[in-house]
Amino acid sequence: MTFAYAFSVTMMVAVGFASNIFSIDTFRHVQLRQTTVGIHLLVYSCCSLFGLLMLECRLFQLLDSLTYIPFFIICNVVSGLASIFTRICLWTNGLIALQRSLHSFEHIRLLNNIRSRAAAPKQLLVIVICIFLMHVHELICRVTLPDPVAEGKFVCQIKYSTELLTLNTIFIFLHLFVPFSLNILANCLIMASISHRRATLHQTTYWSQWLKQFRRH
Questions:
Q1: pLDDT tens per residue across span 27-64
Q2: Average pLDDT over residues 5-31
Q3: For residue 147, which phi and psi values (nearest 5 degrees)?
C-alpha cells in the first residue's frame, strides 16, 4: 500500500515537473514577459514546480529509518512550504484569469494600471506576503511527536487552539473562495466584453447577447 501510494505520487510529480519545466522554458522568453499574464504564468510555473518538489520530499516521511531531525524538517518546514506554494498557485491562477479577461476591454486608465507590466511584480508580492502571513500560525503549530503505536517512528501533527482552528477554517475558505471568485469574475467580464461588441455589431440589446453567451459557457 505504501509503495503504491509513493509510486502514484512520484508519477504525478514527474508529469507535473516536466510540464512546468516546459512552461518555464516557454515563458522565460522576453517577448512573452511583456505582459502581466506572461509574468504571472512564469511565476505560477515556478511555484508549481517548487510545490511538487516539496510534495515529493514529504514521501521521505514514509521511510522507517528516518531519524528525528530529518522528520522534523519535513514536518515543520517542507510540509509548510508545500502548503504555501500550493496556495500561491491557486491565487495566481485566479489572478491570471482576471488579467486575461481585462485584456479583452478597450484601453481604460484604471484597467491599464491593473494590467500594466509594472503592476505585475507588485500584485505577485502582495499575494506572496498575504499567503505567507496566512500560514504563519500553521508553521508555528506544526509539531513532531513520537508515534504512539510504532516505536522509533514519528508523526507530524498540527495542534491548534480553538481560536486558531476557527482562524484556519476562515483562511482555508478564503484560499478556495477568492481564486474561485476571480475565475467567475473573469468569465463574467469576458462575456460582458463579447456581449457589448456583438450588441453593437448586430444592433441588438446587450442583455440578449449576454444571455446567449451565458448559455454557451
A1: 877 776 777 888 888 889 989 988 888 888 888 887 77
A2: 84
A3: -70, 120
Domain boundaries, the chain: 2-176
- Supply 76's cell numbers: 515543520
Residue pair 44/93 in contact (Cβ under 8 Å)? The answer is: yes
**pLDDT, averaged across the chain:** 83
Q: Which residue has the cell 511584480?
A: 121
Please give the Cα distance from 164 to 46 (Å, whole number): 30
Whether pLDDT at 217 is above 70? no
**What is the separation of C-alpha 195 from the centre of its chain, rounded to a whole number of angstroms?**
30
pTM: 0.83
Q: How far is CA 96 from CA 4, 44, 100, 157, 188, in A?
A: 35, 9, 6, 34, 15
Q: In angstroms, rounded to a whole number, what is the distance separating the alpha carbons of residues 65 and 85?
A: 28
**All three cell numbers of 129:** 506576503
CATH topology of domain 2-176: Rhopdopsin 7-helix transmembrane proteins (1.20.1070)
CA distances from 185 to 47, 106, 121, 182, 191 (A): 24, 17, 22, 5, 10
Arithmetic mean of pLDDT, 178-196: 84
Measured CA distances, 69 to 38, 61, 85, 144, 157 (Å): 40, 11, 23, 10, 15
The CA angle 145-151-152, to the nearest 5 degrees, is 70
Mapping DSSP to helix (H, G, I), strand (E, B) and coil, where does residue 155 land?
A: strand
Highest mean pLDDT among 67-71, 158-162, 176-180: 176-180
